[in-house]
Amino acid sequence: MAPHALTDLHDTSGYYPSTVHKPWSQKPAHPKSLKAPPIDSPLSASIPFGNLGYGSESPRNVWNLSSDEISEVEKSVRNFLSLDLPLSAINQTTFPLPSALTSKLRNIVATVYGGHQFFILSGLDPYRYSDFQNVIIHAGLSSHVGSKRGMGGRTGGNHAVIQHITAMPLDRNAAAGHYHGPPSQNHDIPFHTDNGDIISLFALSRSQSGGSFYLADSTVVYNELAAFQPELAQTLCRDWVMIKTFDTRPIAFPNHFPGRVLINCSRARITGTPSAPRPASLPALTSVQRRALDALHYIAMKNATGIQLESGDMVFFNNLTMMHARDSFVDNEAAGLKRHLLRLILRDDEAAYELPAQLKDTWKDLYEHEVEEEDFPVEKELFAFACSH
Prior knowledge:
Helix 4 packs across helix 5 and helix 4 (about 220-230) packs across helix 6 (about 285-300). Strands 2, 3, 4, 5, 7, 17 and 20 form a seven-stranded mixed sheet that branches. Strands 1-16-9-18-6 form a five-stranded mixed sheet. The protein starts with about 50 loop residues before the first strand and ends in a 22-residue tail after the last helix. The chain is α+β, with helices and mostly antiparallel strands. It is built from seven helices and 20 strands. Helix content is about 25%, strand content about 20%.
């Protein structure tokens, strides 16, 4: 089951969807006559519904690395280490791979920007490598998928291009303003998007239970909302005042890209989170906005593909056309079961979509920097609000 709101009584920010708003995501007996912005070519979901399982009969968007391919990846790690360069220097030249592997990785770009929208690479064993080597593997393989790495917290002075998604202990003696947000906790994370084109997650280890990851096609979600609750779909297309970003802008962009709805919806940057609520200095969200935001979550939940990321899985997905979420989880560190993902934000300039004008400044700040500015925290650290979702 996809994430659901069990935390209404403990969260006053509105980050967690309210169960009160769940009926707004349900189909009424008869569609309403009020028209939301139309989609030129409504699409069916191009990803399978239900849980994604893969093994000997892998779908086209799952690649199980062979032992020879893993050996080539390890050879590239040794090559990079021999150069004695900073991690920011990882690219296709310093992390070279045979042409056959390079071609397969480039095919991920076509898959992610194309119909399938996500891709899973499996077969690696992070336990064989040091933390430093795992970061090299993630950044090295990803450099063949995205020509640019996003610096998600740049506006907040955070130059990290890789983030750790893992439960961290709460520091009750931390200074005021210390952020301990959802990516650093073990609670549900509702459906949302980050900023950026492609999100890459590398699962270093999994939890004892829970922690399933979910993807939902944004066009499918929007089409259902537009058909049965058009006033809420219209609300998504109007301006929203964001927290700590450049501008006031819509969440949904129908018809910007043929046949697809682009959605940019970071709940943390809209509602705030329980540990960093929306500032009182900003206009409060209206009741219609809150219903629309929560309807996105509940409709995405109904249409989600569930993925249980195993240790060594690396997933790439189109962050502009897919929303994502995760279940709460329970770790067992004594047994070596502690959920820990690495995140990179990527972009391929050749395949990338033309962005809506309202997102261009945010994307420029995310991607337009010198690679020498990039930080790669190897050790686990709290997920900064400036990078948050």
